[in-house]
């Protein structure tokens, strides 16, 4: 197995050196993006995407949380993890999934598939209990084939590109040693508008899942961050029905929906010790919780920038039925 892994990853690395490359972000070469099948990725997650496509075997009971980076991944993970595990047998023990959500960052509760397939690893995921919960930023066209054929469920989350852009910019430059200068925002904005950002172009990413959610609504559920903010409980109930574990009338009467919404609120999660001081890989957990608001772009983009991004979004999505 080790030699298979080595051979596979060597192939991915060689292939990546032949792809169009674009400097991006403050970390030099490590932040270069590579364009693969029309989308831009950092090298390591791209290797993971390639490895998962070749080696991951999906099960019908798997649940995939797919998001555009900075669209609310952390929140969706917390909500889904709590909802799926709400009736776990070990109700009060320290290893109960809901206790875990108080001790772990949501990214530790629901792993990114491309981090499981990381740096030469081919993980053994067979022993994980059903339903297995995975997350990914991968475009629809690059999902592992077996995800499409196994009939597992995909929940997709995206966000108004203006807020998504601002969140992404803060996230990337929070790692930078220098201050957030306006110059870097402008440069980064130009690249974003031309489709260059991790996982970008954002419009193609969202559109492919949108179309698939119309074609196969029983398999792909499409959500927007704005809807989740506007009616978190309603979205959570829809999510539970989609995944096949709807809240019973009794659970609703007992306030189970509100309990989970509260457990995963921005205020509660961002106040936990693990999220104030812990890290997820090279990233400080606190960077996953910034403002958590709709419309924060108004504090960062000029009216001209906002208009331009809106115009591009309108052009790209025209005729699809998808709007922000
Ligand atoms: P802002 O930067 O606009 O504040 P991701 O999880 O995909 O990295 O997305 C991060 C964005 O989701 C950040 O947006 C973050 O503040 C917001 N977020 C994180 N947890 C949240 C929660 N529980 N409720 C609402 N928004 C949340």
Automatic annotation (TrEMBL):
GO terms for molecular function: sulfotransferase activity. InterPro entries: P-loop_NTPase (IPR027417), Sulfotransferase_dom (IPR000863). The keyword Transferase applies. Residues 60-321 form the Sulfotransferase domain. Its EC number is 2.8.2.-. Coiled coil: none annotated. Keywords: Transferase. It is an enzyme of class 2 (transferase). The keyword Chloroplast does not apply. Pfam families: Sulfotransfer_1. PANTHER family: SULFOTRANSFERASE SULT. Belongs to the sulfotransferase 1 family. This is Sulfotransferase. It comes from Acorus calamus (Sweet flag).
């Amino acid at each position: 197995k080790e030699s298979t892994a080595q051979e596979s990853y060597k192939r991915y690395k060689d292939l990546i050196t032949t792809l169009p490359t674009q400097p991006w972000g403050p970390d030099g070469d490590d932040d270069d993006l590579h364009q693969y099948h029309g989308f831009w990725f950092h090298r390591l997650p791209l290797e993971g995407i390639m490895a998962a496509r070749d080696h991951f075997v999906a099960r019908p009971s798997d649940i995939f949380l797919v998001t555009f980076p900075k669209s609310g991944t952390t929140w969706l993970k917390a909500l889904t993890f709590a909802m799926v595990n709400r009736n776990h047998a070990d109700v009060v023990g320290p290893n109960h999934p809901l206790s875990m959500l108080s001790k772990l960052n949501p990214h530790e509760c629901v792993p990114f598939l491309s981090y499981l397939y990381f740096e030469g690893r081919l993980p053994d995921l067979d022993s994980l209990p059903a339903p297995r919960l995975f997350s990914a930023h991968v475009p629809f066209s690059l999902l592992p084939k077996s995800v499409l054929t196994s009939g597992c469920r995909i929940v997709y989350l995206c966000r108004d590109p203006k807020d998504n852009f601002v969140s992404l910019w803060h996230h990337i430059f929070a790692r930078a040693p220098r201050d957030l200068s306006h110059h870097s925002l402008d440069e980064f904005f130009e690249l974003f508008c031309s489709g260059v950002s991790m996982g970008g172009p954002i419009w193609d990413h969202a559109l492919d899942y949108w179309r698939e959610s119309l074609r196969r609504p029983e398999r792909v559920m499409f959500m927007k961050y704005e809807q989740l903010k506007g009616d978190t409980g309603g979205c959570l109930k829809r999510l539970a029905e989609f995944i096949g574990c709807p809240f019973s009338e009794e659970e609703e009467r007992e306030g189970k929906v509100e309990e989970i919404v509260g457990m995963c609120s921005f205020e509660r999660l961002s106040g936990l010790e693990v999220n104030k001081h812990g890290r997820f890989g090279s990233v400080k957990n606190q960077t996953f919780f910034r403002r958590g608001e709709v419309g924060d772009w108004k504090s960062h983009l000029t009216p001209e920038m906002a208009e331009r991004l809106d115009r591009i979004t309108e052009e790209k999505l025209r005729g699809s039925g998808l709007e922000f």
